[in-house]
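Field reference: sequence -> structure
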Amino acid sequence: MVPGLLIQEAVDRPARQVSSRRNFLADVVIENGPRDMLSRVILKCDTEMRRMGINLTFATFEELLAVNRANPDSWHPLVSVFDPEVGGVSTENGIALIGWNANGDAVATLASRYYALPDRTLKDEIESLRLFYASPGDARQPGEAIRVTAPIASATRGGAVYLGGLWYHPSYRGKGLHPVISPIVRALSYTRWPTDIAFSLMSRENVDTGVARRARFPHVEWGAIWKCSPVFKEDECELAVVWTSAAEQLAHFQEFVAAPAPREANVASGRG
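Structure field:
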């Protein structure tokens, strides 16, 4: 056990509704995976976040949605995967993180959502729109449909974690925050759920500008054609399924723990 990191036994943990200002370390539970390594990943991330003047907390998805709606100039509307009313996400099947500066302003967010697929594929989950909506028949837009040809979607059963909800306040961008915050939600998701892959859906623009590479998704597979999407303006949008395996995530965690601490500029004075 890493000094300073509280690791509770899963059977003893409280409900996952926590204060929006309590540092997330107080509620970390290591349920799966190599405890020592994952503890070190989480603690290193928190140390660097604190050094940059950010207190990272677990949050409800209602809190995440409120931060999203309060920042329309720098953040597009949150995808329904992380909308508790439309998408059915909760603190039982998802993780939401919010980073706060010393002034009490939200300055960073990240989230994950777990899908258990014991008897259907990820392709089934996406094409049925269950990935996005708790009740697709009621929530889907007129004409909305997705056709998925990415091979990984057809091959994936078991546990899949969708990663997203990433946002930084403009005053914190370009400071190298992503390499610090990204491993946290991946490690927390890895410890919480038996995961075969972590994935996201990404536009061609984001893939072409290196977002998938910076987010440590080594695999980019086209495609997924989304018609009449509530997210994109186009009538038809092509997306990539970007993904990483459980083994690749472990390798990334090992690399992160072994690497020197990032040398970002101190941004503690940035306001949200």
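Note: The first strand starts at residue 55 and ends at 59.
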